[in-house]
Amino acid sequence: MNNNKIKVGVSNKEGQLGFVFSRGGLREGSGRKGFGVTKKVSLTLTEEMWKKIDDHCTDNKRSRSEVIRNILESFYSQ
């Protein structure tokens, strides 16, 4: 292990802690851009339906969130 010191700083976003680097690191506007608002939802489905969704996720290398979001967007775009 090397003797480099790690600095931890407080971000300007709600007091979140983050690592402070001499180059790059936490900057306003950096990182992946969001595409929507995150809201937690509890969804009750049959085991059979969850299996279909999970199989679709595996076959298409997609997350559950992405698959369910695509289903909803398709339904409401009609």
From TrEMBL:
Residues 39-75 form the Ribbon-helix-helix protein CopG domain. GO terms for biological process: regulation of DNA-templated transcription. InterPro entries: CopG, Ribbon_hlx_hlx. CDD domains: RHH_NikR_HicB-like (cd22231). This is CopG family transcriptional regulator.
